[in-house]
């Protein structure tokens, strides 16, 4: 028998593969229902994968191993797998793949219905307190029972979004078998920044070019939504940058990424001449968000009551600030708000099938491993791919014994 700890994407996929192979398994979930975190992914819309898939979208100490796992069960395999369970999936202009219902709970339901159909042994409300191996078998203890198995899959997630039950217990279980855990930090998370220059911007969403700088050297760049908050910034561009960001870095925002600085300077100069009697805050009206315009001017020490005419000589500086609005990163919003965990059990402590080198028969899947992806469906793809990888290997080993 195989015991699977955790009913996220990795755990449910593994259980389903084993059930389809006719292998006995029991899926243990600490919550009262399966896939709580999965049902909330992609802002509740279920971004399962991305059409632009590859190891270059992941952070890990072993990108080669990541690529190997993705090659064995990639985006087309995942879409085909979930489609065979009765789903229909579509991609958007950024390659993000969603269920056509745009409900992440639909993905959870597809897996749940399939597990029920195959008669998989699913136990909810079972928090795993400890696991050990004695005499060639694993003994897994919960609050109410002890499960004995030949194989054990740890798919209990990381530390991100602990309100879903992902409080890091999986790391503790892995360490009990001698595994190490790299430094853990939140990823795909909102960033705290200095607040003075963004007063009045709370709730404003802008399509920005974003660059992350450390000691004036670019660490990352992208384009996407930036949402201003009372603590700093959020939005998909910020989530993507957060995997690279540290306190002390600078975020450079370009409020007008499709317009060259020289063209914007010319536009502002002409507008200041033509509408010189209007107040300064009107100079950027119709060009950038009005609240953002006020912050841009204020950051340059320009009074909103000045006339547009007085700003002609500063058109270049204003254009430069529109194209490079800087915010100092002060930190992030922590595991409570993060989508994934950066760090985990090193892939070097597992074999090519993600079986532990510390304890034969122990497999690790999903977020518990030192693999995290960019925003855009990459983390769910890894969860599914790694879960299937583990389960297929177990099925092969069971078949070899017959």
Quick recap of the structure?
The protein has helices spanning 9-20, 63-72, 75-84, 104-117, 169-175, 236-242, 261-274, 290-299, 315-323, 378-401, and strands at residues 2-5, 25-29, 49-50, 58-60, 89-91, 96-99, 121-124, 128-134, 137-142, 146-149, 151-154, 185-187, 191-193, 205-214, 217-228, 232-234, 250-254, 325-332, 340-342, 362-364, 371-373. With 402 residues, the chain is an alpha+beta fold. The mean pLDDT is 96.
Please describe the topology of this protein:
Elements (H helix, E strand, L loop, with lengths): L1 E4 L3 H12 L4 E5 L19 E2 L7 E3 L2 H10 L2 H10 L4 E3 L4 E4 L4 H14 L3 E4 L3 E7 L2 E6 L3 E4 L1 E4 L14 H7 L9 E3 L3 E3 L11 E10 L2 E12 L3 E3 L1 H7 L7 E5 L6 H14 L15 H10 L15 H9 L1 E8 L7 E3 L19 E3 L6 E3 L4 H24 L1
């Amino acid at each position: 028998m195989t015991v699977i700890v955790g009913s996220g994407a990795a755990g449910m996929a593994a259980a389903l593969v084993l059930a389809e192979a006719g292998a006995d398994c029991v899926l243990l979930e600490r919550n009262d229902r399966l896939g709580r975190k999965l049902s909330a992914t992609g802002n509740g819309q279920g971004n399962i994968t991305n059409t632009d898939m590859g190891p270059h979208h992941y952070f890990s100490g072993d990108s080669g191993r990541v690529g190997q796992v993705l090659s064995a069960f990639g985006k087309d395999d995942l879409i085909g797998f979930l489609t065979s369970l009765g789903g229909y999936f579509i991609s958007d202009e950024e390659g993000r793949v969603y269920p056509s219902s745009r409900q992440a709970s639909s993905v959870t339901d597809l897996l749940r219905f399939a597990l029920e159909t195959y008669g998989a042994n699913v136990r909810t409300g079972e928090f795993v307190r400890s696991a050990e191996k004695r005499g060639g078998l694993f003994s897994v203890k919960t609050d109410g029972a002890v499960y004995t198995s030949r194989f054990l899959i740890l798919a209990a997630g990381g530390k991100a979004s602990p309100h879903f039950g992902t409080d890091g217990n999986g790391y503790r279980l892995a360490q009990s078998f001698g595994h190490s855990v790299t430094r853990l930090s939140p990823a795909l998370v909102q960033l705290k920044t200095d607040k003075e220059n963004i007063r009045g911007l709370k709730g404003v969403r802008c399509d920005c070019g974003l660059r992350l700088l450390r000691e004036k050297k670019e660490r990352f760049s992208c384009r996407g939504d930036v949402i201003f908050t009372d603590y700093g910034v959020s939005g998909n561009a910020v989530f993507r940058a957060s995997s690279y960001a540290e306190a002390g870095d600078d975020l450079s925002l370009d409020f007008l990424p499709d317009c060259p600085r020289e063209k914007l300077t010319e536009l502002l100069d002409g507008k200041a001449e033509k509408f010189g009697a209007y107040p300064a805050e009107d100079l950027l009206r119709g060009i950038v968000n009005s609240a953002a315009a006020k912050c841009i001017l204020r950051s340059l020490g320009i009074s909103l009551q000045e006339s547009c005419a007085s700003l002609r000589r500063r058109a270049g500086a204003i254009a430069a600030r529109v194209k490079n609005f800087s915010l100092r990163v002060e930190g992030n919003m922590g595991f409570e708000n993060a989508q994934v965990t950066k760090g985990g059990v090193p892939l070097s402590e597992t074999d090519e099938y993600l079986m532990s080198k510390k304890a034969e028969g122990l497999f690790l899947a999903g977020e518990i491993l030192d693999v995290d992806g960019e925003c855009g469906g990459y983390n769910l793809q890894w969860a599914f791919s790694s879960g299937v990888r583990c389960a297929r290997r177990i099925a092969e080993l069971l078949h070899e014994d017959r």
